[in-house]
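Fold this sequence, please.
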Amino acid sequence: MKIVHVITRLNLGGAALAVLELAAGQRARGHDAIVVAGTIPAGEESMESVAGELAVPYVRISALQRDLSLRTDARAVRQVRRLLRTQRPDVLHTHTAKAGAAGRIAAATAGGARPRAIVHEYHGHVLSGYFDSRRERVFRLVERGLAHVTDRLIAVSEEVRDDLVSYGVAPAAKFAVVQYGFDLDARTAAAPGARRRARDEIGVGPDAFVIGWIGRLTAIKRPLDLIRVAASVDSAVLVLIGDGEDRPQVEALAASLGIGDRVHLLGYRKDVADWYAALDAFLLVSANEGTPVVAIEALAAGVPVVATDAGGTSSVVDDGETGSLLPVGDVAGLAQALEELRRDPVRRAEQGSRGAVRMRERFSVARMVDDVERVYQGIVSA
């Protein structure tokens, strides 16, 4: 089967990694799968090198970009349509909002080059919490229209599917739920002595309680809550890996709360496996998530996760068993959960060990490839 995956950009994040893992898994099964992606904006870290590591053919389309622009977006549609006419895939599988729009419009207008199956995957959604109410209404209408030219929709969790159904994007029957899959052994393989070296880098000893977070410092991730929570956990050290437009506010709040010396902003790092090894707990405070890959990786590395119950987070974190789930904005509750872990190393070890086993059972590449292949076959054999 010839498959073309289109994603807006291969920036650092779960969606890009999942697409590359899926394409690599499909190629290992004998399918001809390629990944097409657009331009990565300044200030965002690239995952394009992972395509090479996984031996996935990668095509960049310059006009495909995150920001809205009628002229550039129209050019992106033309470029994707030209690629479809050249490649003649059996399946077009689009990912993320902009690529989903450009790819599906291109396929619908490709004439005889229209793929036998058009699939769009929601790795989350921007239909709530990202924009003002007027633009959210417009985007919901656009997604409803695009759903009519799509053979099947995929959501990465039941929670994401239920959100999209509630917004009227499409009926539940049009969705398949396919959870992510990753090579978690590779993603969490720390080098020998990594815990000590990472802690030495930030100047903390073996007995310090170190909390970690990885992501983009942007409003939907509520990074200021990270600081507020850390300030309420006795002597806790907070390590933030990533960057973003809210970094100055994060630094300012840490200073104003008197914990600037306990908060370490490391920027983007490639040695994240070593940093997972350095952590005692992982904190996630987002207002919205599809399926939080950093939580999957943290648990796979044996680190319990304290998180807000946002989007598909509950499909990753089992409350009371591999971590804790609290309402969005519940700073006191998040801090209390972390304080309990700080005081109880046995609980930390038990939750981390349980999480490591469950993540490998739940989020394997083989299972994801199987699930997606069933979606494709259900369309092409109909």
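The chain is about 45% helix and 15% strand. The chain has a mean pLDDT of 94.
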